[in-house]
Write a structure and sequence with these properties.
heterotrimer; A alpha/beta (328); B alpha+beta (357); C alpha/beta (202); B: 357 residues; alpha+beta; seven-stranded antiparallel sheet; three-stranded antiparallel sheet; 13 helices; C: 202 residues; alpha/beta; Rossmann fold; 2 domains; five-stranded mixed sheet; 12 strands
């Protein structure tokens, strides 16, 4: 059309923010609160959305997605909760050890990949550990709309039960908590049985829990379209490997603690991306040639594509072998 | 910015007219001398000053009369505005988007005062001054989507986003190019586009869908679409086709300049925050052939586009029978000279009409 | 056998499948006329389904042809109705009291499947999980886009709207919500010029 073309930068719109609170909840989880540096209101969002936080770790730039857990109608602040992962790439460690109140950071506009289905007659939430975060925002939103919801929250121990007290105090009849160390498990089959037609189930937590909910619901005859899940894949570290970027005519070493996408960006090559968590498809990259094995960790490509080596999702996936050439 | 609003009709006596200002800023859709479908999306982040691309929701001289015509269409057929029950939240998102945008972009015409959830909206051209509670439908005379789109030019499709797909679950559709909201409501992206020839095979809709699913808050997009209409009739709906279809047969070499109109849709796409829906405004601009050819480049180019358009497209766009008449007329304004790339008139550089070749 | 091969068409034209047993707490089968054959085949695939099944059957012109065979399946509930319209109240009641885990199987004419599917969707079941299998008549439910009236059992193109009398051509554009195809005035651009009707799919 050429009316007034503007080249789009990869990723969602950025917002400069100032850290307004750092609240450790327990040994593993800390909440971070942000205010806009320019003092304006944040955009409101749909519960379940996440933001991508840019971290400048001594010159190494990392981008990590975190669910927004604050009430969407409170536009004076955004809040996220981060679970420390000592075996990860270093993103959560950075947040826990280096971020202080008053720090200037950059986060993105909300990205919506995990949404409420507003047609649902009832919303059944299943949370595992840090998976509670998107539900905090969804619950706040549904409460304003007089929505019909129920939460079943599985935590390891009482000490590690982030937000349990707050949730049980506010919603004593709708929140049910199960402690792993007391051998309490979500009675999933019973819960799914007898729900009204049009009820929807949502699960956020470890892969095993997500697979379990999907499988149990399917066996009980629930339509697939009414079971929603979000699994945040933090790009896991792995053996370093080399990649050749054909279009940019350069070769890059992907370090142990950076993702393939981060390595491409470090080399100064602009590659499209959005969610940074293997779910949205924006960073899909064509493989020109390869001699080795892919470690696909994404939720975007299908089984065939995972098998035929034609594409890779660099935000979360890796490679092991002799050579890899990408169309970037 | 002061706009002189026309008093004009889009039916019966068709007193619609474009001022010189409107003609020069008309969104001519062809950037080259031929046309084929493409996923011609770009960012909707402003444009040349005074152009239809500059503001988020363009307001022009036809505003007041278009809204009057809309009110008449709705009185006649309320089914032109429908919202499935789960889309009310998206309606509020849209109301906020339009009120904030218009009050910021046209402060002389629109004002929005907000005190928490207590809002006051002033629409000077339409003489509206309403106070209401945001998110409380009982404080507005209509549902939020209907309320605000009765005050905004163009059609609005509000699309729910579920299962990696877009669903036409609400809309205000009174200026459409021959499709029915009442029939299509509830359909998904591929289904409502099902009747468009050739485009599916070209993979156009698959690519477009992928793009639209990823439109983020704060990053709207836009594209242009076009068709032809005899007489400046906004309501070219299937519902009324049994009445207006016959107007296509009233063209003559003498009246075609005044009656035949190029109809361009400026389509924009905004992500809505609370509902995660996508709103798809379709703003309709009309220009008569005789006004269009006063811009020499456009006259040359339109002749070539219409001449070389594939039969399937000319048929689908409804003007295959009138094509010969159109070419006879437009041929007089094509002297064979080259045209500059891009859509703008380029009056400073494009030569005036020479002898027709 | 009464299975018709519909020619490939535009994306909004429904495509029907073959009924297969699925895991679920309860099973609701709705069929008209020759659709009974598909129910019998479904039961053949998994006989123990019947103990949890509710069959709603409208024989139409097939009269007694299938009724004893269907009853012999011993479904948990069996209803035979004189028309789809007469069965709607029952259908709505069943859906209103159903729980997640209900599987719905529709078979027979497009008109029956479309309308029953719409009822199930209104009750909260996504259309993508409602199974359909076409059997029997290929007549269509048509909506006149001008007067909005629905004309049943249309077998010719063009046809006359049963409500406003306009002659309409038959489009493949289909609305799930209305459970009907679209009919548009055939002589809008040349009043009075109405082509001779041609049978559908001929």
């Amino acid at each position: 059309m050429s009316a007034a073309p503007q080249k789009a930068k990869p990723g969602a719109e950025q917002i400069p923010v100032t850290v307004s609170a750092v609240v450790p909840l327990n040994e593993l989880v800390t909440r971070f609160e942000f205010k806009r540096t320019d003092g304006q209101a944040f955009p409101t969002f749909s519960g379940g959305a996440h933001t991508v936080v840019t971290m400048n770790d001594d010159g190494r730039t990392r981008l990590n997605p975190y669910s927004l857990m604050s009430d969407p109608s409170d536009t004076s602040m955004y809040a996220i909760s981060v679970r420390r992962d000592d075996n990860g790439r270093g993103g959560s460690l950075f947040m826990h050890t280096r971020v202080k109140v008053g720090d200037q950071m950059t986060i993105t506009y909300p990205v919506h990949l995990f949404s409420l289905d507003l047609r649902a007659r009832k919303h059944l939430f299943f949370a595992g550990g840090i998976g509670i975060t998107p539900f905090m925002a969804m619950i706040a939103q549904l409460e304003r709309m007089n929505g019909n919801w129920e939460l079943h929250y599985s935590v390891r121990t009482e000490a590690l039960g982030s937000y349990v007290d707050e949730l049980r105090y506010k919603f004593p009849n709708k929140v049910h908590v199960y402690y792993d160390d007391q051998n309490q498990a979500i009675p999933l089959e019973d819960l799914l049985d007898g729900q009204p037609l049009g009820a929807n189930a949502y699960v956020c937590g470890p892969k095993g829990m997500i697979d379990w909910v999907h499988a149990t619901a399917e066996a009980a005859g629930w339509p697939d379209a009414q079971v929603h899940s979000e699994e945040f894949l933090a790009p896991a570290p792995g053996k370093p490997f080399e990649v050749r970027l054909c279009k940019s005519d350069m070769t890059v070493q992907v370090g142990e603690n950076e993702s393939l996408l981060e390595a491409i960006e470090r080399a100064g090559v602009e590659a499209p991306f959005l969610c940074r968590g293997g779910a949205c498809g924006q960073c899909e990259t064509d493989v020109v040639a390869y001699d080795g094995d892919f470690i696909h960790r994404d939720h975007w490509l299908d089984e065939e594509q995972h098998a035929d080596g034609s594409k890779i999702m660099p935000c979360v996936s890796r490679f092991v072998g002799k050579s890899l050439e990408l169309d970037r | 910015m002061t706009i002189q609003f026309n008093e004009e009709t889009f039916r019966d006596d068709y007193s619609f007219y474009n001022s010189d200002w409107a003609i020069k800023r008309f969104p001519f859709p062809f950037h080259e001398d031929s046309y084929m479908y493409s996923v011609n999306m770009e960012q909707h982040r402003g444009g040349p000053e005074g152009s239809v691309y500059e503001m988020r929701f363009d307001v022009d001289e036809h505003y007041v009369s278009e809204m009057k015509d809309r009110a008449m269409v709705l009185a006649d057929d309320p089914l032109r505005c429908q919202s499935l029950p789960h889309m009310t939240l998206a309606g509020w998102d849209l109301l906020e988007l339009i009120m904030v945008s218009k009050s910021e972009d046209y402060p002389d015409l629109f004002e929005l005062h907000r005190d928490g959830d207590h809002w006051r909206w002033i629409n000077k051209p339409l003489g509206i001054d309403d106070t209401f509670t945001f998110l409380d439908e009982t404080t507005l005379p209509y549902g939020p989507m209907e309320y605000i789109t009765r005050q905004a030019q163009g059609d609005f499709c509000v699309l729910d986003q579920r299962d990696e797909m877009l669903w036409m679950d609400a809309g205000m559709v009174t200026t459409q190019a021959d499709w029915s909201l009442d029939f299509d409501i509830g359909m998904n992206f591929f289904e409502w586009h099902a009747p468009v020839p050739l485009a599916h095979e070209m993979g156009i809709f698959k690519r477009a869908l992928k793009f639209l699913l990823n439109i983020q808050q704060g990053a709207p997009a836009r594209r242009l679409n076009w068709t032809m209409t005899v007489n400046p009739l906004l309501d070219t709906s299937p519902e009324n086709y049994h009445k207006w279809g016959i107007q296509k047969t009233t063209l003559t070499p003498e009246n075609i300049g005044a009656k035949q109109h190029l109809r361009v849709e400026l389509q924009t796409f905004f992500r809505l925050p609370r509902s995660n829906a996508l709103v798809f405004p379709i703003r309709c601009y009309l220009i008569s052939f005789q006004d269009l050819v006063t811009v020499p480049k456009w006259g040359r180019r339109l002749h070539r586009v219409v001449r070389d358009l594939p039969v399937e497209l000319a048929t689908y766009k409804g003007f295959i029978d009138n094509r010969p008449l159109m070419l006879d007329y437009l041929g007089k304004f094509d002297d064979g000279q080259p045209t500059s790339p891009g859509v703008f008139p380029d009056l400073d550089t494009e030569p005036p009409l020479g002898n027709a070749s | 056998m009464s299975k018709f091969q519909f020619p490939e068409s535009i994306k909004s034209r429904p495509v029907y499948g073959t009924l297969a047993p699925r895991p679920g707490k309860a099973h609701l089968m709705i069929a008209d006329a020759e659709g009974a054959e598909a129910i019998l085949e479904l039961a053949g695939q998994q006989p123990d389904l019947m103990a949890k099944s509710h069959i709603i059957y409208i024989p139409k012109d097939t009269g007694e042809t299938y009724t004893s065979k269907l009853k012999a399946l011993k479904p948990a509930q069996y209803y035979e109705g004189p028309s789809y319209e007469a069965s709607v109240q029952r259908l709505r009641h069943v859906l209103a009291n159903a729980h997640q885990g209900l599987q719905v199987y529709l078979t027979g004419t497009e008109g029956l499947m479309g309308q029953a599917q719409n009822e199930a969707m209104q009750a909260g079941i996504p259309h993508s999980s409602i199974q359909t299998e076409h059997r029997g008549s290929v007549a269509r439910r048509m909506q006149c886009v001008h007067c909005k009236g629905i004309t049943e059992d249309v077998m010719h193109d063009p046809f006359q709207c049963a409500h406003c009398g306009l002659h309409l051509f038959v489009r493949d554009h289909y609305s799930r919500r209305l459970a009907a195809y679209q009919g548009v005035r055939v002589d809008a651009e040349d009043h009075g010029n109405i082509p001779d009707p041609v049978e559908l799919y001929s």
